[in-house]
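hiii so my PI (J.) wants the whole complex modelled not just the main chain, which honestly fair. so below is everything: two entries, each one labled with what it is. i double checked the lines twice but i was tired so who knows lol
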Amino acid sequence: MSRYKKMFQKLSFLKEGCFVPFVVIGDPSLEMSLKIIETLIENGADALELGIPFSDPLADGPIIQKASLRALYKKNTFLQCFELIENIRNKYLHLPIGILLYANLVYNYGIKNFYYQCFRSGLDSVLIADIPIEEYEPFYKIANQYNINSIFICPPDADDSLLSKISLYAKGYIYLLSRPGVTGIEKKTISLSNIFIEKIKKYNSLPLLQGFGIENPTQIQKSILSGTNGVICGSAIIDIIEKNLNKEKKMINEIKNFTSKLKKATKFVQS
Amino acid sequence: MTLLNPYFGKFGGMYVPQILMPALYQLEKNFVDAKKDSNFQKSFFNYLKNYAGRPTPLTLCNNLTNGTKTRIYLKREDLLHGGAHKTNQVLGQAMLAVKMKKKEIIAETGAGQHGVAAAIASALFNLKCKIYMGYKDIKRQSPNVFRMKLMGAEVVSVESGSGTLKDACNEALRDWSRNYQKSHYMIGTAAGPHPYPTIVKEFQKMIGEEAKKQILEQENRLPDAIIACVGGGSNAIGIFSDFIDEDVNLIGVEPAGQGIETGKHGAPLNHGRTGIYFGMKSHLMQSQEGQIEKSWSISAGLDFPSVGPEHSWLNSIHRAKYVSITDIEALEAFQILSKKEGIIPALESSHALAYALKLMYLDPKKEQVFIVNLSGRGDKDIFTVREILKKTEKKHESL
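here's the output for the full assembly
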């Protein structure tokens, strides 16, 4: 059974939602990044979504973009990112770990080499932010050969034809977009309609995680009440990193508190 | 499923976040309908003729070629309303935006030529217009920024990354992924995700059609070569289009910037690798690790690390040849054309002209006919050129 499947089963048994934090590997440095990720895990992360830094992350807003540029500034290599993943994998054997990156990094490394590297590092899933399902075929085939789950993004206005395609291809979980646009914190409150979520569930039985704009416990509870299995939270965590770049202890402390608070929000019992 | 083939050989495609796919399908469908719609076509050609000023002339440069057997013709897109070929296709795209009932235009610009064109078309069709421009380009192209604002466009300064066209493109795509329901993203060149490269070529192909007719009238034969500058590649694909099936050399000129060996250039076709960026698979300036590299050119309009996918394809099948010209060579051509023929070319077009002159000087006795696409006029560049010339003069004085 895949790590995602086991994790979702366990959470469903415990009647908890899933909390997945997102950070960029190497932000602000490889060493700090490892500390941050361990803090996230120790304080309630049910799975990890890790970004591989890219120069032009056009699906991301300013907070994640700056994180990528901070990481790139350190000139860490692609393989060093994978070493860090391997490191975490060896320490946390059962934790589902996924990466999010951009097409050119995969293409440049060679699609086959890339997925082999993912497999070797103990990764569970890959999300390529700028490849829609229509262009996924060459990546999908090889991902399957190496048993890597391909994560697909479901926009809030997805029509029947897209929903049926996603249900055919998706593995692990489905990444539900809260809203159109790029990642980041926005003032507008976000909630997906129960009707839309029910419609997605008619097409497939995969767990649903909501991402984009998640930053507080109320949103998490609303998301789970609308029928999702949990949330992915990135920019709000990276915002803490950015604001405390020279205050390591404070940064770790704030991430610790924030993570516990958000994880706690997933634990309310559904009526 | 797309209605048209999104690929040129292995290049092209639709590499965008999933959220943008419906907007691309909608655009493609409206474009396909518009091509078949005689009213749309009639109206488009009416705007081209009576608003933009087509056909543009084909000018023979006698002074420039004096003492040689080369005849150089310029396709005068600089005389089009707006001062560059960009006006052609923005009229088409603005009409598509109206057809799709979009109220706003999002655009990005490097040299400001596409920004000006987008502002022109938006004013004409009563559309709100937001233009993303790198902060460095805003500085080096201030007259064009002023023009855009005069025509009611909002110019957004992009501070992220290198602060040039590449970053403006990212920002425009981000805006579009938030606002695609009400906004049309008016891409300025024959690049980006399908259907843009096909749409832009369709709305620029009259350059080639006119040039072919005009050269046959004036020379009674086709030219030996068509020479055009290539940033994203819209003016080049426009003038190439009607000659692709003819026995004519097609030459695209990329910016070699401060010299290919310095790394400060914008020549991905000759000095980049295939990659995926800005919605397409094409040639790309990238690091060993696959990070997109900053490009460089004296001409902001050519300062782009990638190129339209059809050019990558024409290059791969050896149908077109791509060469490069340095900043200095382009500057010389800029001055020569101004002095000899009384035509101030855009720094972009100066690259194409510089290569034509190079070929001419190489073999002055060879009888040959070239058409250079003079894609835009150089008014916008006179301040940049003045600054450089001042510096060079100072250098000479101190020697």
